[in-house]
Structures are given as structure tokens and as C-alpha cells.
Amino acid sequence: VAHVHCEEVFGILGENYTFPVKINKKLVEIIWMKNRDKVAEWEEQSQAVYFTSLKNRGSLNNETGSLTIFNLEKNDTATYVLEYLPFDENNLRLTFILTVLDPPSEPTISCNVSDDSLVLTCAADFKGPLTYTWDFGSITDYKQQQQNIVFLKKNVDASEKVMCFIEVSQTAKSSEFSLTECFP
Questions:
Q1: The whole model's pTM is what?
Q2: Could you tell me the CA-to-CA distances from 72 to 30, 33, 64, 144, 153 in Å, in that order?
Q3: Domains plus CATH for the chain?
Q4: How much of the chain, in percent, has pLDDT values that exceed 90?
């Protein structure tokens, strides 16, 4: 019975991407397919061979079985299947559905004034999950609702500046916001 593993993963255009393969067995043969085309192959006692789109952009780790694609392109979006043969066992397969996303936009910070607080929202145009962090300078009185939404007391010093940082994979971007923009 073949072990079925299917995982949706994403990479960022222009970055390097390594498939999250965790095999803790001695491997004797590795084949990576993209859709139905072979893109990388390795057998014990030989060098890895790369085909088609990965000829100069692929790197196979014959100990873990993982494949790295350098400088991701839009047409790397595909279904990848890793077929591997552990020592003394039958063929096993892992399937990864890779989507290559555009990098996130620069974040923008908007401010809404409610009864007793300023509500700051940090947003970036991106189709996947982002990690948000904030820098409030010398402001200590704030409440974080979600990663991208923060409440400040209304009596905060309007000359303060706030920074929002977004991060995904190897890409990080930030923007600065002056609290004077909250007070028309």
C-alpha cells in the first residue's frame, strides 16, 4: 500500500524554494516529477540529473530527498511528485502542489478614530498568510487585537511615528506612519 501524502505549499516569485521533505531513511533512488515530466533524478553512486525547466535552477539533496528551485518563476506553479526508494523498501511518493505568488506589496497603514482610541490597520496585497510586527517607538499604551490591527489610546502624542513590518518566506517589507495623519 502506497503512503499518500499531499501538501499545498507556496513560494514567492524570484526567491529560492525548498520542498519541505522529511525522510529519515537511507535513500537509494529519487525522482522528482513536475506535472507529468521528470525534472530531477538521482540514483545511489551517481550525480543528480536535472531536466527541462530545472536544468540550471534545481538542487537535489540526496540525503533528505528535498528539491530546491532557485529563482522561482510563475511557471514553476505545478504539482510536484517525489518518488523515492528507501533502502530495503518499496517505492514511496510525496505530492506537493506548489503555487508561486507575487511578492507582497509594501504595507499601508490606515487609521480610524473611535470613541477613545485610534485603530491602526496594517495591510498588504498578498494572496497568502503574512506575519505582521509593529514598532511603536516610545508608545507603551497599546492593545493588539490581531497581528495587523492595533488600538492606541486617543491621548497619544500625535508626533509619534509607528512602523508596520510584514514578512513572508525570505521577503520582508515595512512602512512608517505618522500619527498626525489620524487627526485631520
A1: 0.82
A2: 22, 16, 21, 35, 44
A3: 5-101 (2.60.40.10), 108-182 (2.60.40.10)
A4: 72
